[in-house]
Inverse folding.
């Protein structure tokens, strides 16, 4: 076909947020010709919205911190559903990935000794988040963006062409992955600006497309978060796991309506802010679950002392993992103790000086002042839960980021397993650096080991082109904006923060009806920068991931992390052993199957007290732990214990 | 609860186009971008607009609102009188792709030509040591969200296409200043480059860029004026040279300017 621009690359990275840019840097450093597909302009990806920081156990503020403590916190935060190997790699490698950013020109806030400063955050035992005020994501994306430019400058010096080895395709959307003989052979998409089509012939694709929040009505996510990578992977034959686990961030803005859902950073609480209900009560003390009882303060006095003396006091319960805080806020509002506009109060004004707030939370000050006429140095904010992050995603090999489809890789939010049932704040920015790098490496070494490149089948290109143009051929169908609003309302109402069987079943039925409607949506004419057409194409992705969330949520009969069932309120040790995996058939319908969660090796289990493990593991697993621990300790009498080895 | 307001929005491309009239509902607390989205959903499904975060953090939704360069997501509807017509047009300095979307590739090309951070030799990752007071100067410029409102408003290029070759614009001047003031950047010739390669000499300090910056960056006072300082001032001052070697501090005024100045 002559109207399709053709390109040939070694590695095509879809997504230009932190994970995608870090993967691209690594692939280019490995000598691979690399393309970066960017749905927006370069440097605008959703990473820019991250506020609090990047978690890495550098121990700059509290020297007791190390990777083992970070690993423990991450597993606890995910309620032990995390893929242990991902959590281990993440905790071990995060500091190197942060330090590396300084060599690219990043300027983090400093400690008095001149090291990178670290702040407190929910679920992290020690101050651990490298940050720049409350605009850390901007610093991260700009740093990676500028590193890519510096690599382009090296290439320009060598070849006279900035884009010789790494090129950014801005405002470009990929609609289909192409496989040949079951392996990745290319991908197909369009320039948003012109509407012209592109074909990439490439043996590897790294998915780094982020999340799915735009399937929900109240969300902190931007328009880009339409689950593209999740859906592309499904259609290419890969598996998604943990899709029932969706994080509702406890603090989104609730007023005015037009900004409902926009994020209020967890740093507000990390820096001393507290949650109060309509009676002025710090209600979080009533919501500390048994599994976390030992680690959190029981009185306001103890919680307040912790900010200045963390070694002798326990942290305030406002800093519980996000799922716990979101459920608590939800319960307070339902019980009629909410704020006037349907949230609760987040108060830092009465607890910290105006100067401190300006210094530590400048963009929160700006955001509330400009958008809600609220001065957060003088009055409390009103906040409520907002759809923020999907823990679920493409099942990958932890070490290389490889999906089950040869040539397909995934990193960052679009991948699954790392965060288990709930992600800790600050673990996303570090996740995307650690696994972005690994996926870039993984893709590069896959290319090296490939005897021959699979050729793109022309029939697949013809089919992809036809699918992309289909919305123009329809007349009289519903507007894509209307169907999008229906989908968002459905997921919000029926697959939200608190779920039950009847509603989830209704959601599955409703999604089936919406699928039929999406097949009839009509695009306004004209291919040049036409958002109506773009939305028509994004809709089928949003529907597909919505179906995954609904079906997996219906299947999992327990409550854990970002999945709360009204009809199954308890956590079940048996369900912890089960990963739910979604696959799609040729017509795009989703099925859910069960597979075992990979078992954590003894050396990592032994980082926890037996009493703590007992809260999560089955009797059988505990018996196995006891037997293995006994045999290790018997043999350890004569040699160095395995755990000591890890302490180095 | 809503009121009906009158909007005029530019529809068209670089060759053809016109202001199109719309009557549209406006509700409490809404911003201009909400209204543009409402027009998309109800009256003009193909209306082209860039946006991402809707919270003033990504710098995508830049446009001219009643002639003023602004972010649509941070422009509250209650800043207009109820009977006031709100006119939204694309950034004037860049070619229109369609409707409110312009071709801003000029800015990315200029960024590509600007020498990147040069890491200090012999300092291993993890060994970087900098004082907060020293990083703060550069941090001010790293707040930039690349909305390009400063580039759009700068009269050197706003109506002078011919200057675009030689002139990089305020966005890139603060990048130059950021690197010049970076405590560990190994290059010593940032000011010279700004003069020779970026055309900072074209700027005659009218401060229009500072006026429109949604991040409140003191572009003129804290970046452009220091970068325009005579190169010899610092090059051959032995005390300064010693200071830079010992304290790793560039020769900048002690304090950043306070408040915006017209």
């Amino acid at each position: 076909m002559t109207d399709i621009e053709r390109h040939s690359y070694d590695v095509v990275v879809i997504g230009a947020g932190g994970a995608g840019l870090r993967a691209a840097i690594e692939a280019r450093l490995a000598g691979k010709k690399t393309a970066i597909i960017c749905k927006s302009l370069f440097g605008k990806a959703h990473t820019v919205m991250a506020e609090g920081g990047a978690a890495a156990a550098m121990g700059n503020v509290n020297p007791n911190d190390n990777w083992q403590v970070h690993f423990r916190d991450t597993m606890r935060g995910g309620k032990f559903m995390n893929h242990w190997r991902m959590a281990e790699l993440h905790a071990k490698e995060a500091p190197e990935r942060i330090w590396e950013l300084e060599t690219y020109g990043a300027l983090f806030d400093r400690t008095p000794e001149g090291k990178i400063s670290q702040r407190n955050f929910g679920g992290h035992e020690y101050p651990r988040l490298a940050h720049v005020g409350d605009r850390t994501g901007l610093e991260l994306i700009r740093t990676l963006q500028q590193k890519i430019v510096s690599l382009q400058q090296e290439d320009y010096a060598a070849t006279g062409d900035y884009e010789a080895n790494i090129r950014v395709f801005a405002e470009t959307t990929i609609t289909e992955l192409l496989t040949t003989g079951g392996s990745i052979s290319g991908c197909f998409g369009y320039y948003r600006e012109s509407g012209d089509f592109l074909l990439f012939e490439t043996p590897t694709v790294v998915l780094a497309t982020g999340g799915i929040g735009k399937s929900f009505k109240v969300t902190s996510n931007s328009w880009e978060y339409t689950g593209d990578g999740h859906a592309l992977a499904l259609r290419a034959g890969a598996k998604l796991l943990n899709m029932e686990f969706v994080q509702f961030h406890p603090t989104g803005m609730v007023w005015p309506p037009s900004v409902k859902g926009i994020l209020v950073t967890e740093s507000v609480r990390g820096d001393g802010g507290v949650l109060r209900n309509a009676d002025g009560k710090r209600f979080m003390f009533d919501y500390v679950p048994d599994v976390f009882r030992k680690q959190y303060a029981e009185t306001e006095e103890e919680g307040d002392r912790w900010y200045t003396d963390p070694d002798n006091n326990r942290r305030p319960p406002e800093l519980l993992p996000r799922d716990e805080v979101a459920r608590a806020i939800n319960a307070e509002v339902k019980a009629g103790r909410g704020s006037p506009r349907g949230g609760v109060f987040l108060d830092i004004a009465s607890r910290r000086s105006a100067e401190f707030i300006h210094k530590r939370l400048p963009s929160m000050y700006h955001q509330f002042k400009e958008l809600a006429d609220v001065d957060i140095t003088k009055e409390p904010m009103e906040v409520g839960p907002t759809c923020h992050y999907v823990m679920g995603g493409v099942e990958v090999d932890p070490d290389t980021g490889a999906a089950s489809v040869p040539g397909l890789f995934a990193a960052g939010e679009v991948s699954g397993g790392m965060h288990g049932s709930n992600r800790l704040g600050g673990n996303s920015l570090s996740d995307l650096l650690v696994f972005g790098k690994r996926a870039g490496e993984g893709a590069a070494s896959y290319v090296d080991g490939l005897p021959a490149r699979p050729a793109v089948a022309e029939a697949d290109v013809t089919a992809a082109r036809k699918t992309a143009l289909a919305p123009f051929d329809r007349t009289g169908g519903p507007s894509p904006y209307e169907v999008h609003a229906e989908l968002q309302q459905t997921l919000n109402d029926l697959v939200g923060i608190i779920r039950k069987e009847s509603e989830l079943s209704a959601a599955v039925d409703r999604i089936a009806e919406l699928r039929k409607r999406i097949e009839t949506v009509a695009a306004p004419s004209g291919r040049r920068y036409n958002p109506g057409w773009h939305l028509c194409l994004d809709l089928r992705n949003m529907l597909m991931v919505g179906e995954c969330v609904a079906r997996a949520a219906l299947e999992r009969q327990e409550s854990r992390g970002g999945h709360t069932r009204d009809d199954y309120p308890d956590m079940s040790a048996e369900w912890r052993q089960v990963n739910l995996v979604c696959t799609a058939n040729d017509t795009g319908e989703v099925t859910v199957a069960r597979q075992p969660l990979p078992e954590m090796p003894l050396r990592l289990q032994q980082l926890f007290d037996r009493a703590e493990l007992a809260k999560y593991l089955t009797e059988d697993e505990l018996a196995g732990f006891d037997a293995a621990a006994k045999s290790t300790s018997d043999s350890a009498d004569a040699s160095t214990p395995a755990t000591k080895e890890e302490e180095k | 609860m809503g009121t009906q307001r009158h909007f005029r929005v530019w529809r068209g491309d670089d060759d053809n186009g016109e202001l199109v009239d719309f009557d549209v509902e406006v509700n409490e607390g809404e911003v201009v971008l909400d209204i543009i989205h409402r027009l998309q959903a109800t009256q003009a499904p193909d209306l082209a607009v860039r946006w991402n975060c809707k919270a003033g953090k990504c710098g995508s939704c830049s446009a001219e609102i009643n002639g003023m360069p602004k972010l649509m997501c941070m422009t509250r509807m209650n800043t207009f009188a109820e009977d006031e017509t709100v006119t939204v047009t694309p950034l004037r300095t860049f070619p229109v792709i369609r409707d409110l979307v312009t071709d801003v590739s000029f800015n990315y090309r200029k960024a590509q030509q600007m020498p990147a951070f040069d890491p200090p030799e012999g300092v291993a990752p993890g060994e970087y040591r900098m004082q907060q007071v020293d990083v703060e100067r550069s941090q001010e410029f790293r707040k930039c969200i690349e909305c390009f409102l400063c580039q759009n408003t700068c009269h050197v290029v706003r109506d002078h296409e011919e200057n675009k070759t030689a002139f990089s614009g305020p966005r890139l001047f603060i990048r130059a200043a950021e690197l010049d003031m970076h405590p560990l950047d190994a290059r010593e010739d940032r000011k010279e480059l700004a003069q020779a390669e970026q055309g900072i000499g074209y700027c005659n300090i009218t401060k229009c860029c500072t006026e429109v910056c949604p991040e409140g960056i003191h572009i003129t006072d804290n970046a452009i004026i220091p970068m325009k300082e005579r190169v010899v001032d610092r090059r051959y001052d032995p005390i300064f040279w010693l200071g830079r070697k010992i304290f790793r501090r560039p020769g900048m005024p002690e304090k950043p300017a306070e408040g915006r100045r017209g």
Observations:
- The longest strand of chain B covers residues 3-12.
- Strands of chain B lie at 3-12, 17-26, 62-65, 68-71, 86-89, 96-98, 101-102.
